[in-house]
Design goal:
Order of helices and strands: HHHHHHHHHHHHHHHHH
Number of domains: 2
Number of strands: 0
Helix content: over 70%
Structural class: mainly alpha
């Protein structure tokens, strides 16, 4: 069991890292890329996440083209969410029991095999309109299995990042650059997917997604990392899990950060599910207007990542977390009340910036404060926050149906702002976090 004195203020992660030559970066915005291990990871991440974004378009298109059923689109989402809800804590334990890099190589290759199998089934006609029921069943099973694989990949990936850097000072920059990949590919990836479907058919998207994992696998194999000893494998899995929970309970900073992230994911990020209702019924701008609304948020998230990557070192992390969360709540409240399309676009862009502030700063702080031997378990619990987003969407959708979409979003925004104030007042240790 971790000593309570350690849990009150976890030290900087003391993971063994290979000696790396780190020349001065030309730009603070890309400072973490001066480390060869992180550079290999970042370019590999860019390849595989582009594949994820291509698949996002292809999967929805394929299911709807086969069935014309919105309900089955929801079923595909459920098949993806269930493993994340129930397996994420176990995945975090495994990230502390085994070599994280090897675990990621296995999960990436496994994911690639699943996608290539679907590509072959599409090309041979096994999955297609001639066998709709079988096709849907195969797609549901594949989505479930792929989600299981990705669930074990996520905590290992998040726990590995601090090991790739030579200094904790560059961790916030590294997380911001990681988020920049996700946000940037969310624009490029769907466009590639649409072009592939139009030009070569949906099977091409699955082929590209399958091959994209080779970018990450290559990056992982290029890394020069010293072995990270772990005592977790000498204990039971149940003991490993309880040790992670006890660590969080004994560390006020991490407990406060996780509480904020869980709260914001449920009450704040649920607004995304109601964007179509705002576009159609509140602003009356149709599908085209909805597309620009989503693009505005994405542009704000990219801008936020660039800001954090460039100036994160000179900004106090605790201030970024608290101000970002409070501002996010206020902007969300304003978005709910807006009936002007251009004001709404501006607020959505601001929401993207502010979400990146509290999310990136919070994640980087947690990863930096947790000792290496416990990081997988803590990040596994952190990953549960994302399971709350669809649950929050269900709750806000119910309120929207009973009263109105603006009311549902306004309540969420007010709740986030109020919780941020309470957290700032009660958790002084959070405000002073560097």
């Amino acid at each position: 069991m971790v000593e309570r004195s350690q849990r009150k203020l976890a030290p900087v992660a003391h993971a063994p890292v290979a000696t790396q030559t780190a020349p001065r970066s030309r730009s603070e915005a890309f400072n973490a890329l001066k480390y060869p291990n992180y550079r290999s990871y970042w370019f590999g991440l860019m390849a595989v996440v582009t594949g994820y974004q291509v698949l996002f378009v292809a999967q929805g298109w394929l299911v709807y083209d086969l069935t014309g059923s919105p309900a089955l689109l929801g079923a595909m989402g459920a098949a993806t969410a269930i493993p994340q809800i129930f397996l994420t804590p176990l995945a975090g334990v495994m990230a502390d029991r085994v070599d994280r890099r090897r675990l990621m190589v296995v999960t990436q290759l496994g994911y690639g095999v699943i996608m290539m199998t679907l590509a072959v089934l599409l090309l041979t006609g096994v999955v297609g309109k001639a066998n709709v029921e079988l096709s849907v069943a195969l797609l549901l099973v594949a989505s479930f299995v792929a989600s299981v694989v990705q669930t074990f990949d996520q905590p290992a990936r998040m726990a590995l990042v601090p090991q790739l850097l030579g200094s904790r000072d560059d961790l916030l920059n590294a997380i911001a650059l990681q988020n920049l990949v996700w946000q940037g590919t969310s624009i490029v990836g769907p466009a590639i997917g649409g072009l592939l479907i139009a030009g070569f058919g949906v099977a091409a998207c699955y082929v590209i997604t399958s091959l994209s994992v080779l970018g990450m696998v290559t990056g992982l194999l290029r890394m020069q990392l010293a072995p990270a000893p772990s005592s977790a494998r000498n204990q039971s899995i149940a003991h490993n899990m309880s040790e992670g929970v006890e660590f969080i309970r004994g560390n006020a900073v991490i407990a406060s950060l996780l509480a904020m992230i869980f709260f914001n994911c449920f009450f704040g990020l649920s607004y995304m599910s109601l964007v179509p209702a705002f576009a159609k019924d509140v602003l009356q701008v149709g599908a085209e207007g909805q597309g620009f609304m989503m693009a505005a948020f994405g542009a704000g998230a990219i801008l936020g990542s660039i800001i954090i990557a460039t100036w994160g070192r000179v900004l106090r992390t605790g201030v970024l977390v608290v101000v970002g969360s409070f501002g996010f709540g206020l902007a969300l409240f304003g978005y709910a009340l807006s009936d002007n399309y251009w004001l709404t676009l501006a607020l959505l862009m601001l929401l993207g910036v502010l979400r990146t502030m509290w999310m990136t700063s919070g994640s980087a702080s947690i990863q930096g404060l947790v000792p290496n031997e416990l990081r997988g378990r803590v990040m596994g619990i952190y990953g549960l926050a994302w399971a709350l987003v669809p649950l929050g969407g269900l709750a806000s959708g119910t309120v929207a149906a009973l009263i109105s979409p603006p009311f549902a979003v306004a309540v969420g925004g007010a709740a986030v702002a109020a919780f941020s104030i309470v957290l700032a007042l009660r958790a002084s240790h959070l405000r002073s976090l560097h």
